[in-house]
Design goal:
rod-shaped; 187 residues; de novo design (two linked rop proteins)
Length: 187
């Protein structure tokens, strides 16, 4: 009779381990998909920004005849960002684009006629709104990455993560160029 009891205990233990493993696997899948979805949300906003930038450059280039290098840098950075595929390529490309846009905005402050232009004002408002959405999407993405990475790296879920090759993801971080606040002279 005790041999039958041992089989039930062993069966119960195996069942608990299988249920735990399945639960951990499902959690890892959910977190991986959450990170992917969060990146797609950033991607939507980045595409919107990519579409606004050529319009802004086109409008301001007539006013800024002496600033062609700055405009070229913005377009080059935009083109690199547009051609980036996935977070690993897009994150540094977007950081470069943000830096180039910061320089453009700082230079634009030196052109009073440009600041008074209604079309420039509308484009700047749309771009500002898009930048806010990107910032919010970055925060959501980084929160999703943190949840995923914590689960992938924590014991005992790291056992299941290793068995099924779940990986950590890269945060969408601000580089040093983005941390520098452009100087604006409103004289």
């Amino acid at each position: 009779m005790t041999d039958g009891y041992g089989v039930y205990v062993l069966g119960g233990i195996v069942l608990v381990v299988v249920v735990w493993a399945a639960s951990q696997y499902n959690t890892l899948v959910r977190l991986k998909n959450q990170v992917a979805n969060a990146w797609r949300q950033i991607d939507v906003q980045l595409k919107r920004r990519h579409n606004l930038i050529p319009n802004l450059v086109e409008v301001v280039k007539d006013y800024m005849s002496y600033e062609q290098e700055t405009l070229s840098q913005v377009i080059e950075a935009r083109n690199r960002a547009v051609s980036a595929s996935g977070p690993a390529d897009a994150i540094p490309a977007e950081a470069a684009l943000t830096g180039a846009m910061g320089r453009l905005l700082a230079v634009m402050e030196n052109y009073p006629d440009l600041k008074a232009n209604d079309q420039v004002g509308q484009l700047m408002e749309e771009l500002s709104s898009t930048e806010n959405k990107i910032a919010f999407s970055r925060q959501h993405y980084n929160d999703s990455v943190m949840s995923n990475n914590n689960t992938v790296e924590s014991f005992p879920s790291n056992i299941i993560a290793g068995l099924f090759r779940f990986t950590t993801h890269r945060y969408f971080e601000i580089d040093e160029a983005e941390k520098v606040v452009p100087k604006v002279d409103l004289r």
